[in-house]
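Lab meeting prep.
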Amino acid sequence: MKKILLIAVAMCLAATFSFAQKRTKDLPIATDKNYIVGKLDNGLTYYIRRNTNPVGIADFYIADNVGSLQEDESQRGLAHFLEHMAFNGTKNFPKQALRKVLADNSVRFGNNLNAFTSQDRTVYNIDAVPTKRESFVDTVILMLHDWSSFISCEPEEIEAERGVIREEWRMRDDVKSRMMKTIYDLDYAGSRFAERDPIGLMDIVNNFPPQVLVDYYHKWYRPDLQAIVIVGDIDPAKIEASIKRIFSDIPAVKNGAKREAYKVDYVGKNQVGYFVDPETRAIAAKLDIRYPYFDDKYLSTNEYLQQGLIREIISTAMNNRFVQERKEPDAATKRCVLAMDRIYYDCNVMRFTSVPANNNYRKAMIALYKDAAQMLKYGFSEEEVAEAATEVKGRYTRDIKGLYDPDSRTYVGIAVQNFTRKSPLFDTKAYADNNVKMLSEITAKDVNDYVKKIKYNNSVSILVAPKSLEKTLPTENELNTIRDSVNKSKIQPYVFKATGKLVLSKNLKPVPVISMEKYAAVDSTIVFTLPGNTKVYWRETKPDVEKRVMMKAYRNGGLSVVKDEDVKSTKVAAGCLDAVVFGDLKRDEITKLMSGKNMRLAPESHYRKDVVSGVFKVADAEQFFQMLYAQITDPQLDTEALSNTKKSSIASLELPKSELRKFADTLEKVTYYPTPLQQQVKTQDVKDFTAEMLMKYFKEHFSNRSGMTYIFSGPMSAKEAKALIEEYIGNMPVGNENAKSDKGNYLLKGKREFVYNAHDIKSTVCDVTVDATGFGEYSTRQIIAARFLCSALRDRYIQILREEMGGTYSVSVSPTYITEPEKYLCVTVGYTAGAKNLDALNKAVYTEFDNVVKNGVTNEELDNFRKFLNKSIKEKDYSRISWISRIEDNLTDGEYKDTDDLTIINSITKEDVQNIAKNIFGQNNIFTQIYKPADDNKTVNTK
């Protein structure tokens, strides 16, 4: 009996020990039990969750497990076209009634009302819906009901929308979009993914019969492929009842078309591709390695989360290797990075991207092939994984607050991912906590086991080059030979090099502050005054999860205080400041150290100010102040970093200027009165720039604290900070300070137009910007009135330029208030379009300027925007307000221009808006800037 008891005890102890040793990755994944998830008889899935962050509103989504992959060859573009039609008439909301009903209830098209179409899903959203009136909530659910099965697709609306989509296609016809599409098509060559760009083919968009769209809609957009997601300040039981009642009239689809899950062929396909374009300035050698997405097998445990963390660790460790390689004599690349992504539901990809040194693509590709083969063969050491995990942890915790107190969109995103991608319904706090735990538990074996799953037999080598370098590129056969040769060579394991240790001064004798008093202009702010005209403003805030403190220090300086003959060298120096280091570390070592602690410290020179900005956790406060002190008092030069920065600048300057660069250079000259500050840096200026010049500039602009204003904001009291301020800032040298300068760029006045005709480009899109400027000092009330003016103009232009004229995809209208070196308030209108439509579109823009001056805005425009602002301001998380900006504005202008001041917003009148329109437009400072393809370019006919 005694023996049996001892055995039982031993078994219990063994079980206890086994449980204690269980790793976080092996635990069941924590799911959120607050979701109500159900399915109607017709197959419709629904997700409902109560959330009061923010209070009084909710988000309403419908997700369709349908995208462009379901289109056949004659339907390419219909899924995206249907997305547009959802806003142009449904069974219960004809024409644009849906938009109007929502706008009348403070839900704005573009801001809160939108949708997206991808290859495997389509998602429509109505965000930030006020939930006080149950009848309106039911109205919004009825809108989701109509999107599910009752989009009207009226022929006249289809015809009107063709032009909008043509302009959306045109807007995407830029060099960056072309490059990304080329790379994507190469990565997925031979698969359905490469053949179904959601925007579609314009021949089909322009010509499909309306019934074809209707048939496509009813074939694929049906309850069994749809989910309703509603999250916010709601009663879940009432919402569930409304969904069951409102969606009950939609019948189940019998024998519906099967949704295919398309695959990528991963075996034995090493490809080579090129992107050469007259508009690009990008110089890149890329290697993409594709492999299957296998995370789904871990869905039940935290190992699903760990897979993502391992990818982050691999990327970070490889990027650290690239930093070391870049330091080697005769390095092959100036810069190299690895990113690991999931592409849709089937594919993961490792993306190596490098910038070849001296434009030597062959040498750069040899290095990439070697790095990839070395990593896949040998993996990573424990030391390398530990260092990378620390960096990942530092980055990961940066925004962790959002997972402890998520807003409704976070919960919506989790539900949409669950329905469309089978991801778990995470409990967000457990998700955050478990990720942090696993970053401390992940071993080299975990990482290397993942690496072993990646087969190096499905890669794409991609060379990106401007047209001027086309003849220097290696051929496909050359690259295949190089890759095979590297893979057959004897590659040695990587030798890990640990980061150097930071050496900082300590035990300084504190310099007492002269005074410590409240700063009346901003509540709860304390201002310290130190000898040498140095002010330190400290604003304590409520603690967030990370307990981070933000800092900005500034004083008169930058370009405005240098001699005319030093302007170009100053511009070069401003671009090289990160080569000035401290603590016996190199730039890359400092970057790595700060990344692991989620810390930042950076000196910057601007046009009118010298600035030092930073971020640190309360726990690291003393180390941050030590680093700040060292940066200012003992600046050291990283000669290698300076050399690399200069090489990159010279290589960029020696490339032929792109048309966009020429446009920007010319635009500066025609926007402002001539000034020596507009001198442009040439190659020789960079070559002539020396280490001595950089250190001289740094010491003149940063190596004393006289006239410097420091602003800190974070969850640390002024009382706690006082000793650090006295010890470290107090011991910084004092010296000369710069008087405020009136140098700067001053706007030209009058009504003007600048048209730049771009030659040798592929893009067919024209970019148009119209600036209307009122000079003078403006009050907060006037600036808020300008916001109302811009809102009214934006809504009018969407209706006129987009819906009625079909001439553009989107229009932006925004106000900007500038105070230095001169004061003015500018209203900026921006849009893209085809060249043949410009005259009519610009005329419409100017006409509305005149209309709003003559007739003002309507009561509806005024009231709708006022309601929108009231709602959106209440949604804001003011725990994250930028107190630094608020204090700086007070110090600079004598008044913080609080454009969220609800007292003013709610008292704005039609007369206020009309008066600001008269003030701005009446000065007749209208500057129209147009970047367009020259007439001699070959353009694509989209008609």
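Slide two material, second protein:
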Amino acid sequence: MTWRAVPWSVCVAGCLIGGSVCAQTRVLDDFRSAASWRVVSSDQVKASMRRDAGGALCLRYDFGSVSGHALLRRELPLELPAHYLLRLRLHGSGPPNALQLKLVDASGDNVWWMNRPDYRPPRTSAEMTIRQRQIEFAWGPTTDRVLRRAAAIELVVASGAGGRGQLCFEQLTLTALPPPGPRPAPVIDTSARHWQADLGAPREVSGLLVRWPPGQRTRDFDVQLSDDAHRWRTVRRVRGSGRDVQLLWLPPELEARHVRLAFARPADAPSDVQVMGPEQWPSLNRALASLARLLPRGRMPRGFVDEQSYWTLVGVDGGGAQSAVMSEDGAIEPRKRGPSLEPFIVDESGGVTSWADVQIEHALRDGYLPLPRVRWSAPGLDLAIEAGADGTRERSQLIARYTLTNTGDTPRRLTLALALRPWQVNPPAQFLNTPGGASPVRRLAWQAGTLRVDGQPWLHAVTPPASVVAGTFDQGDVLVDGAAQRPLRSLVDEQELAGAALRWKFELAPGTSRSVAVVLPLSGTEAAPPARADDGWARARLEAIAQRWRERLNRVTLRLPADAQATVDTLRSSLAHMLMSRDGPALQPGTRSYARVWVRDGAMMVAGLLRLGELQAAREFVQWYAGFLFASGKVPCCVDARGADPVPENDSHGQFIFAVAELWRHTGDRALARRLWPQVDAAARYMEQLRQSERSALNREPGREAFFGLMPASISHEGYSAKPVHSYWDDFWALAGYRDAADLASVLGERERAAELARQRDEFAADLGRSLRTAMAQHRIDHLPGAAELGDFDPSSSTLIFSPAGAEALVAHSTLEATWERYWRESLQRIEGRRVWDDYTPYEWRSVSSFVRLGQPQRAQALADFFMRDRRPAAWNQWAEVVGREPRKVRFVGDMPHAWISSDFIRATLDRLAYERDADHALVLAAGVPREWLAHGVGVRGLRTRHGPLSYRMQRDGSTVHLTVDVGLRMPQGGLWLAWPGDDPLPQASIGDQPAGWDGRALRIPSLPAQVRLALP
């Protein structure tokens, strides 16, 4: 039967929600007929539909070695009542994957969903209740996010653990609920044995926030729920509580009319109890935030008290999956999703000093090495915290060192407490891939100098602490509550929020310091410090880590004026960020929110790595990613532990080909190019299929002409995730892919294929140029459009026309000037505070390169100065993916650092000193160097280019500018050029002893080594 054949039932037994109006239920599908359902699956995911012995309709799936999804879809016109819930009865088998129920509107563009990640299907029939609040808008262009009607339903399994299995569906019902009435005030009843509340009607209960009269002894009680005040079920047991403010988080999906605290022994009633539902506490993080607001500021991290927090990465090259993060306040999260180690200082009277009570300064060792430091300063005391990661990807550890100093005039007795806390450094506002905030801690143990968390070694004390105490979360805060300060041997917290504190007690004379060190294992087998390790050992290990990074990060050296030293330091730090973020060969933009591998990020990071001499890291990535192409030649947009992602993003194919070609151009490794040629060829053939699909008669019709010959619409550009569009971002990458595939074919002697690819390249370039001009005319704009449908302004995307596409000639030069003139006007308003803005993404670094190529170094410098001010913290030389105007306004910021943005900064900075002109394979020097830099001198040594290493020096001496270019560079096909930007009179030039003429505002250097003399007018 179907829902159309079944009327609303007269009444659900007893009425689901209290009130005089009964809830009504409709069967949407009993799955007895498979005719109305069809199976859909993504690339290389096997899926089929069958009926099991019990009559359920089963979706069988096998993810194999790829990521993706399988689903059952049915057209199902449906009007949703104002208040409702769904019930899905099902069973199945298989590893944990995401279960999704999607409701799609008539346009097919707007989707609402219930998404349960890591869902393990029950072996026997079970009913899942899906409440209205659990169905959220997923994506689509609509601005009306309220679900009122649907046209289709999808039952989806999306890869989590992957593998194979089946989901068997038995019944799907929709229950219309009466509108919620006003909630009556709870009726409270108290006695020496209980506190009890009648809520007036059944309600979902997420937890309770309880305040007790101060100074009471510890308490033992149970949290109980009831529907009738007679039959009670215990949902939480609390033993030994010493908190004045108690957070009682309950298991999910509980509903009751009556709530009771049942005391194990007679006790005074609490002074206040708030019963929280999912509206107030939709998550444990929200519950913890409620608690944090009632505690002294600093007792919990900034993220729980409505303050944006920042952090940085501590790891080893290639160890992104096992890296640590350190907060701006000195807390350390050694393992992703794991608890953190927070410092506190306890004085003689028991007063606690936290991050909220001190001035905080930040630094990196030597100004750029990835060994972060945090310094606390308060009257009479100073605490320095430094950390570094030691070892290899396979076996690594973090060494943290804490130095407490008495800066006052009198002796002090101080305690340094390092507290294990059941929350991450990654704050609660971070929701993507690795949700931040709370982290479960169930079991703690202390033995022989090692703190174990849930059975695993978590901390080794190099300096033995005076004591180690611990308690359950219910018992209290290990910093201030005596009930939670019991000597630790072993502890189990059923609520999985245990805490511990290692305490070192010092007597410090004025001006003296004491240091302690701990080791936090990151990866591999247990890496405890040597038996005789001490603070001297820790200092030596940190210096050894620093020396290895010095050698790694200084293969290329820049000479810039002293006031630009931060740029030099940030460039070296950015290289370290890319190396630490990668997981083995896999280049990742981050280690928490973006712990996946996108080919677009990887291709652009490859370009930056190669220019700084990291050939091996680039080679490893390209070879690794080549193994994930689909059988069709489709290049996956991204790859993670689940395998290749099938989402069509039509920039991917050109990016992969570009990365292979860029590796060839920098290494000359013909054998590697030959090994990768089959994947390059397959990707180019797949790209050609896509291109030809848009060279259709449909795209000759009025209004669609701009789509003709482009890559098909996709969501590769983040701004177009609501609905696929024809993004020129895709097309510029595709053009680079055609060009590079043709070049590789020629290099490898594939003459016929090279000719075919060259023809396709030229035809595509012609179609792309025509499309750009058509879209500009249709939208009546004078700037480059971001997408053909929209005619939008997106200069960060349009930068690709310069590099890697080298396609400036496809449009008039006035179009390029108009595009970046508008961007400059808007940027200047933002820089000068004349334009209201909330946030931006530092991908805008790419526009610095555009101004360099347009011969506008002063604008490039002004933009760079603006972006450099938004490093957070500035001394840590990094950007988040999202930068807010108000530093403490809470928002999702992505990873810190964000390695793709690090690569954008690297390429923009190096472009200012030397850039490859993709249009004619020329190398252009000093186009982004401001004139004022020349008085102090600029230069590079060992900068990698497609033509070998580049070294040059340029300096002004009075009225003469001297340029020296060293040997080691092969003369580029398009020539070696010195740019003289701006529009002032050109200097008189000579190369060696011979006069030299200018070609426009560029001077060609015919041979190396070269001595160029520029006499200023």
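Talking points for slide two:
The longest helix spans residues 751-779.
The longest strand covers residues 164-176.
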